[in-house]
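Please check this today:
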Amino acid sequence: MKNIPAFEPGSVWLVGAGPGDAGLLTLYAYEALRQADVLVYDALVGKEILRLTGPDTLLEYAGKRGGKPSAKQQDITERLVTLAKEGKRVLRLKGGDPYIFGRGGEEALMLAAHNIPFRVIPGISSGVGGLAYAGIPLTHRDTNSAVTFLTGHDATGEVPNVNWEHIAKGSPVIVLYMALKHIQVICDRLIGFGRSPDDSVAVIFKATTEEQKVVVTDLKNAAHDVAASGLKPPALIVVGEVVKLRPQLDWFSRFLNQAEGN
């Protein structure tokens, strides 16, 4: 497309790869994959997306996963600066959206401090795309006109220090990223501050991919049901009445079942 900007040597594009399905990439992201000299990518970027790179693109893994040996953020950011100063067209590809719990802001600030030209390409966050593929609308006129997005852990790895009482009482729908490790504590806090133990919960594993699984439960049983499922991260947790719309709106499971039948 003629309106796609040129990927200039010595610059960095911070690009959101979306929640998993390669079809959810933006046109900018697709063009960046084709033009990049170096791709620095996260753990949640799927192989289907990596195959879209040009034949001469160098791939560098920079994934961070909880509880596993991972690249340090400072090292990743410094690597982006080094590659750009070498005159490379550097694509920093991040799962979801770079600025939604993706630490893209930290990387952009470092690039700006070193006068490295950069562009930010938004991606579909799992909190939007993952819910849609799970048959759960993020908002619905009959249930909610507000949503709260939370990370399930802070910089130390612990439950974030937020006003849980206000969230429990004031947000009809809560979407939690990277919260599986602390699901019991989070559910207890929400219930302790007045949320109904029967409030609906969905836990979406590997959202938008062919391996997607959804556990539907409630606040009082969520931790037990997730443990019993044996499913592992990445996962997204949704709390609220919108979860009850899933039986009518679960189009993706039907699509996968039809595909398997063929």
Q: What stands out?
A: The mean pLDDT is 94.
